[in-house]
Here is the input.
Amino acid sequence: MTPSQGESHRALREHAALIDLSNRGKIHVKGEDRARLLHAMCTNHIEQMKPGDACYAFFLNAQGRILADANILCFEDHFLLDTEPETRQKLYEHIDRYVIADDVTLEDVTDRVKTFAVEGPQAARLLDVDLAPYHWVARDSQVIAHLSSYFILSAEKPNLGIPEATSEDARTVRIEQGRPRYGEEITERNLVQETDQLHAVHFNKGCYLGQEIVERVRSQAKIHRILRRIEIDTADPPPAGTKNDQLEIASAVFSPALGKTIALAYVRPHFADPGAELKIGNTIARVAPDGGI
Here is the structure.
């Protein structure tokens, strides 16, 4: 069932809808040294994970810039890395470059494993699951994971009897909810703390690639911009890249539910508090009341 744009927007906000994410990259990481290698390459704590656990993490370069992000699911004999379509090949090659004398093998399983998200306030009830965030459970031939939303990993498209969201409505709701996506709001330009996605980082895990920069930023408590959700009093979203001395727009959409434009923007820290007033040309904008992201 594929509703028109607008209908699926309401389903995503009020009930639940299915989002086809099958083009997301899926990489299996196997071998005795798999946990040690991933632990040394990403920002989250991999060595403490047990089967059924998941986490969200960044992969950085030596300058602390974000090369990719991934949901990492721990299985009995492997890890599954779920990443954006744009970073599928880049992340595979990045990890493979550091497999030297390690007992680690990588396998791209994107074409074998489909990914679907179930989003909306009724998602958990429809799936009949009670999962804490960043945990997963196997059911029949599916894996259901509670990540940024509920993900279903399976060989076939699930039949849940709910609308399938259009890509436009899925993006609108994502921005309304302040959920950045690598490749749009997060890129290789960004440092970890700028994204405000600190659930991707374990600050006491030990050394990893790019950690020196992350720790330097934390110890100095100094960044020049931070990602915030802002509300703009216009029905015409400004294009990505619009900037002034207060902010730079990363993405913007008109929200039919709120009757205004919602944007994700990198804001100068002294303009980043909830309710702070900004200007884009002659238009008034405000940092979202909940602080943004």
Q: What stands out?
A: The radius of gyration is 19 Å.
